[in-house]
Structure prediction request, 508 residues.
Amino acid sequence: MSKRTLFAAIALGVLLVVPLSNDVVGPRIGSKKFTESVILGELARALAESVNVAAVHQRELGGTRILFEALCAGEIDAYFEYTGTIEREILSDQEIADRAAMQAALASKGIQMSRPLGFNNSYGIGLAEARAAELGLETISQLTRHPELVFAFTSEFLDRGDGWPALRDAYGLPQKNVTGMDHDIAYRQLANGAVDAVDVYTTDADIAYWGLRVLADDRKHFPRYDAVLLYRADLEQREPEWVTALLRLEGSVSEPEMRALNAAVKIDRKTETAVATEYLQDQLGVVVAAAEDPLLVRVGKRTLEHLELVRLSFMAAVFVGLPLGILAARRRGLGQVILALTGVIQTVPALALLVVLIGPMAALGLQSVGTGSAAAICALFLYSLLPIVRNTCDGLRGVAPDLIESADALGLASRERLFLIELPLASRSILAGLKTAAILNIGFATLGALIGAGGYGQPILTGIRLDDYQLILEGAVPAAALALLAQGAFELLDRTLIPRGLRLQREA
Prediction:
C-alpha cells in the first residue's frame, strides 16, 4: 500500500469514527420559528434550570406540523401552542366543542395541555400604515374593494384550515396575486413596497417595528388563540418538578406583557434568554442566571454541529455515489436512469424534502428534528449524490478505448481492469466531483436549521428573524470560510492522491 493510499485510509477512518458533537441529553422543549415561541421556550428552559433539570431548548424547529409530530414521536417533550391552532389545524378532522373535548382529543395521543398562559395571539392582516391610510382600509371586509392588492403569506397560513382559503371564503376576498413567503422576508418585502399585505401575529413586535396597521377582523373569522403548553403525558412521571414549575406560567402572562417581551427582543435587541430570565425574576420570583456563550464559543459549537452534518451526509454520499457512478458508466441504459433520478433530487425544494423525510426517519426510530437531525443528514446525502455519480460516470466513460483494449489483451479481469486502469485514470474527474459535492454540502447544510438541525444556518435564520445582520454574518462568514478550507483540502488531496503522470498531463 502506497503512502498516499495509507494517508487517505487513515483520514477516512478518522472521519467515520470520531464524533464531532455530543448527543442531546435530557428533556427537550421545542419552539417554532418566530420570536414569541423562542421566548416561551426559553422561559421553559429557565424554569427547568430553576429546579435543577438539565432541559435542552431545541430552537426554531419550524411550523406547527413539525413541532406537533415531533411531540407525538417523543423527539421533544413539550412546546407552546395556541388553542385556535389546535382546533383549526392540529385537530381539524375532529369536532371540538369546548376545552374539555380538546384535552380529551390530545390525551388520546398521549399529550397533556395546560390552562391558558393568559394571552391571546391571534392572526391578522397587516399593511404598511401609509398604504392602509392611502386606501382607507380599517377592516378586512374593506379589502374586497381592492382586488389588485398583492398578498404575501407564510406557507403555513396558505395551507392551514383557519388560514387564507377560509379567510378568503369568509370575506369573499377577490385577490388573486397571493404569494407564499417566509414570514421575516415578507415583512421586508412589505417595507419595500413589493407586496401590500402580510399575515401577522397580533402580539408580534414586528407590527410596531415595521409600522403596520392591523385590519380589524370585523366578521370574527379567527378564533381565540390562547397560548397553552403541550407536553407528553409521561413527562409528569419523568420530570415532575419541571412540570410543576412549567404550570406556574398558567394565567401569568398578559397580552401587554407578551408584547413587551417580544419588543424587548426585536426592538431593544436583548436576547431571548435575557428577556425570559428577567421576566421570571420580576413576575414569579424565580432567579436563574442568564448565561450567554461568548462569540467564539458560539461559533465553535455551530462549527462542530455543521461539520457533523457534513461529515455524515458526505461520507454516505461517497459510499453510495461511487458505486452508482461505476454502474452508470458500465450500463448505459441504467446509467441514464440513475443520472436522471439524482438530477431530479436536486430540483426538490429543500424545505419540502426535509419535511417529507421527517416521517420516515421518525418511523425508523431516528432523531428527525433538532440537533443531529437524521432528516437533515439524509437530505444532504441526497443533494450530494449528483456531482459524485456524474463525475465518476463521465470519468470512466472518458477512459481511452485503446487502453481498455490493451488491458483486455493483457488478460486482466473486469474487476482488475476497473481498479488498476479505469479508476486511476478517472481519478481526476472523480475527485473533482467529490470536491463539488463537499462544497455544495457545506452550503446546503445551513438549510438544516429549518428543522433545528443546528450548524451555521441557526444564526443565519435567527438573524433574518430579528433583522440582525451581525447574527447573519455569524453564520454566513464561517460557512464561507469552511467552504474555502474544503477547497484547499481537496487541492491537497489532488496532489496527494492523483498519480503524478496525470497531474503533469493536466498541467501540460
Remarks:
- The beta strands are 28-30, 56-58, 78-82, 111-113, 123-128, 151-153, 178-180, 197-201, 212-214, 227-232.
